[in-house]
Structure formats: C-alpha cells, structure tokens
Amino acid sequence: MLLLVAMLPLLAQASMVGSVAPDFSLQDLSSQTVTLQQFKGKVLFLDFWAPWCDPCREELPALDVLYKKYVSDGFVIVGLDMDTSENLVKEFLQKVPLTFTILIDSKGAVRWKYRIRSLPTAYIIGKDGIVRYVHMGYGKEYLQMYEKEIVELLNQP
Question: Which of 7, 18, 75, 95 has the CB geometry, 3.0–4.6 Å to 70, for a possible disulfide?
Fold first, then answer.
C-alpha cells in the first residue's frame, strides 16, 4: 500500500501523456506575457527547474545546446522556474546564460497543473499541443533520449 501511495504522483504525470497540455500564462523576465498557445505548431520542451537544484544546473546548459541545434526547425524550450525569487533566477542566469525563454511560476499555479513533484521534470509537447513524453530527473544519458524524441516530433506534420 505504501508503494502505491509513493507511486501516485508518477502515475498522475504519466497519465498526462496523450492529453492536451494544460494552458498557462506567465511573465518572462522582461515582464512579457507568455502563454502555452504561443507555441502551437512547434515542438515544446517544458522544463520545470530551480536554481538550487543540482541536476537542474547541470541540465540547463545541455538543453541550451539542444535548443540552438533545433530552434530553426520549430523547436522551443521554456524553462519554468519554481523558485519564488526572481533575483535568484537572475543571479543564476548571469552565471549560466541561456538563450531560451525562462518563466517564473512564483505562485505555483503551473506547477500544480502539471503535477510537479520533483525537479527537474520535463514535458515534451507535440506541435498539436498534446503531451508526448514526461521525464523526471536528469542524467547525461537523458540527452540522447530527448534528442531522439524531439527529432521524431519535429518530423511529424
């Protein structure tokens, strides 16, 4: 029974695969409103992270390389920070500059919609707005898997 209770968050996230990605509207670091709908027709890698998360700090620069490689093909990465301090995020980004969009979910509304339980957690969303893959955690071995899934989705009409 305890194992089932521990697995429920994972099952909840996995159950989102094949369903429409929950909509959101947040401000970026330039105070511009960014919505999920803006990315319709593109492959979206939605990455939930925080500056204090060690695997996140390792993952983000690698994601930036992936982003630069496929951005011209219709690939987008949006990093959703789970920290409530915009200053901590800005300090982190001064040390680790990223070229993709960073949003701050300071009230936790998007985190709740996407059932985030650990960081980093990534949702790969197809051009049609459907969640195709969910990944929790990060290791260098994830990059090949991410790239394979992204290329597969970019090649779909």
Answer: 75
Distance from C-alpha of 85 to C-alpha of 145, rounded to nearest angstrom: 32
Domains and CATH numbers, the chain: 33-154 (3.40.30.10)
pLDDT in tens, 21-79: 999 999 999 999 999 999 999 999 999 999 999 999 999 999 999 999 999 999 999 99
Pairing of strands 33-35, 25-27: antiparallel
Q: Which amino acid is at 9?
A: P
C-alpha span between 103 and 79 (Å, rounded): 6
What is the model's pTM? 0.89
* Residue 106 tokens, joined: 């300071």
